[in-house]
Amino acid sequence: MLLSGCQGINTGTSTANASSGKAESELLQDVGDEGLDLKGKTIGVATVGTQHFWDREAFNGAVDEVKKLGGKVITTDGGRDNTVHAQNHEKFLTAKVDAVITILGDQSVDPYLKKLKDAGIPVFAVQHPGSDVEADIEDDAEQGGKDVAKIVGERLGGKGKIALFNAFEDSLSYCGARAKGFKETIAADYPGISIIQPELAEKFQSPADDARQQTLNLLQKYPKGEINDIHVVCWDQPAIGVVQAVEESGRTDVKVSAYDAGPDTLKLMAKKDSPFIANVAQQPRLQGTLAAVNVGKHFAGKSIEKTTYVKSFPVDGPENAKKIYKELGYDKTSGPIDK
User: Fold this and answer.
1) What would the mean pLDDT of 201-210 be, rounded to a whole number?
2) What is the helix (H) or strand (E) element at residue 22, kind and residue range?
3) What's the Rg (C-alpha) of the chain?
4) Could you give the CA distance from residue 140 to residue 23 in angstroms, rounded to a whole number?
5) Alpha-carbon gap, residue 83 to 106, rounded angstroms
6) Pick the CATH number of 141-281+315-333 from 3.40.50.2000, 3.40.50.2300, 3.10.20.70, 3.40.50.20
7) Rounded to two decimals, what is the model's pTM?
């Protein structure tokens, strides 16, 4: 079990079952980089974007750790465009880097990862598992989906109707796992709750504005008593627009839930009488940091788990949102939660 910690500043040692190829994180003291050295190495770091808090934190965690270990960094930013993100990996082939850290992205990235592997350049991933990746760092997405489903199910008293924003279930593996965990838990444990069909598809770019308009339309279609919760399956940015629409419409009967729980959405949850009731907070900076640690371990000849799960935190209601916000250090990096 790889023991890792909060916000990229705590971890421990690996004792995972080798047969599983997976590890799960807890909160300890360091990231396990003692004695690692990337001096003389050039590491490419590719991220799908830096506009979203999650992406930016994972990117910064990877870049800072490579630099800490003495390596040189070449970076690319896909600007929240998966095709651009995929094509950016060509730059690392041209530059003949020693290793690549790839962060997020859909299947369009995979052919480029194969090219890198075929060229003898090892790839280490954040939330992008695959046969051409040496090791992947992620949260346990299916369990996270289950956790948020339980919060929503209990908050609704086991009865009601839920609308889903679920654009990426089929294109992103972690989104599929989050959707699976959520849907299966609702179906198994809360048979009195149904999911409205068809599901909604949020946009990857300008997600809050898009989700706000779609939610306004949805609330016109479903009057009071016909919809009880709107859940954003895979991330939290659309939920900002969902909350805006619910509040603008005066629909105090409709709750909102999501996944990722960055500081902005935790602040929304913490507001008095917020409709935003459930979320799952991750540790994106730590995930990026641990991907860079894996690079260091690779060049040190140390064993690496194929998949490492970093601890996430289910968030249930305003008081829990305040607690998690502080626990993850956002009070120091993003200001007080009540202001």
Assistant:
1) 93
2) strand 22-24
3) 20
4) 10
5) 9
6) 3.40.50.2300
7) 0.89
